[in-house]
Amino acid sequence: MDHSFSLGLDDHEDRGVTQSSPLHALMSSPPDGCVPAVDGLPFLECSREADTLLEGIANVVGEARARHGILLNDLGVEKIQEWSRDGLNGFGAETVAQHLLLAIYRGGLLGYAPEDLVRFIRTATGSPSPADSGGGEHHQPNGCRS
Predict the structure, then answer these.
(1) Three-state DSSP class for 114?
(2) CA separation (Å) from 10 to 69, 73, 95?
(3) Most C-beta atoms within 10 A of its C-beta, which of 35, 44, 96, 145?
(4) 31-62 as b/e: b if 16+ CB within 10 A
(5) pTM for the full model?
(6) Alpha-carbon distances of 110 from 8, 41, 105, 113, 118, rounded to whole Å
């Protein structure tokens, strides 16, 4: 399935955009399927083939990080407190991705490693690690059990 989304950088480190900055390099050479936004903001407009919206976003964010050392952390979702139960590829999925990107970025600023965040999610949801469960499903259609 083809997914369209915007990705940007909410820069709490005030790195700015200069000719030699990683953000300038990213905008000059974005990941496949992405182009710089026309409004001049440090956002990319992306279209990515993936099973789910979350997977498509993660792939682009991972490519940008690997090539340019930047963790894109903003999907442009203005009201992340709003919710929609419209499935794995709708607005609800976009807000979940926005929350996850913010948690990864801001957690990193505080010193948390990705493994700390994964451990937090697994502990909070009672989900075993892949080593304990032998792999398993990528998502639960009805969410986490309460």
Answers:
(1) helix
(2) 15, 6, 15
(3) 44
(4) bebbeebeeeebbbbbebebebbbbbbbbbbe
(5) 0.78
(6) 20, 26, 9, 9, 16
